Amino acid sequence: MDSTRSPNDVQMDSAPPSEPTENEPKYGGYSRFELELEALANPYYLNHLASQKLLNEPAFVAYLNYLQYWKRPPYLKYLTYPGPTLKHLELLQQEKFRQDIISPELVQLLVTEGVKASVDWHKEG
């Protein structure tokens, strides 16, 4: 996300973003749709957010609640890693998880679970 725009700038009462178009504004070369797409699938990113104390900020917690639109069609079909993304989004709604994700042990557990889920999903496909 570019330095002039942050999750705090998103209107929480606004509708979810539309699917990307050619003329859509870009932030650091990416559309809002792309920026919000799957950052939550990365446990290291979640740990980074916790280390910056963003997960304690009421505006950021409201942003995490806003991102729940990814659970619904048509957005769900765009998730490359729906399992980890949606699981982390759900966990981030809980204050305890937002505090605990600072732990390297929890980050590693989430990474291991994500890799295992990905391998299992590819075996089934």
Backbone shape: globular
Order of helices and strands: HHHHHH
Structural class: mainly alpha
Overall pLDDT metric = 83
| Global Rg | 15 Å
GO cellular component, one term: mediator complex
Subcellular location: Nucleus
GO molecular function: transcription coregulator activity
Family: Belongs to the Mediator complex subunit 31 family.
Descriptive tags:
125 residues, mainly alpha, Arc Repressor Mutant, subunit A, 6 helices, 0% strand, globular, nucleus, Mediator_Med31, activator, transcription
Description:
With 125 residues, the chain is an all-alpha fold. It has helices at 32-37, 43-51, 58-66, 82-91, 95-100, 104-124. It has a domain at 39-124: Arc Repressor Mutant, subunit A (Orthogonal Bundle), CATH 1.10.10. α2 (43-51) runs antiparallel to α6 (104-124). 15% of the residues are buried.
Quick overview:
Residues 1-11 have a biased composition (Polar residues). By secondary structure, this protein is mostly helical.
Topology diagram in text:
Blueprint: H1 32-37, H2 43-51, H3 58-66, H4 82-91, H5 95-100, H6 104-124
Helix pairs in contact: 2-6
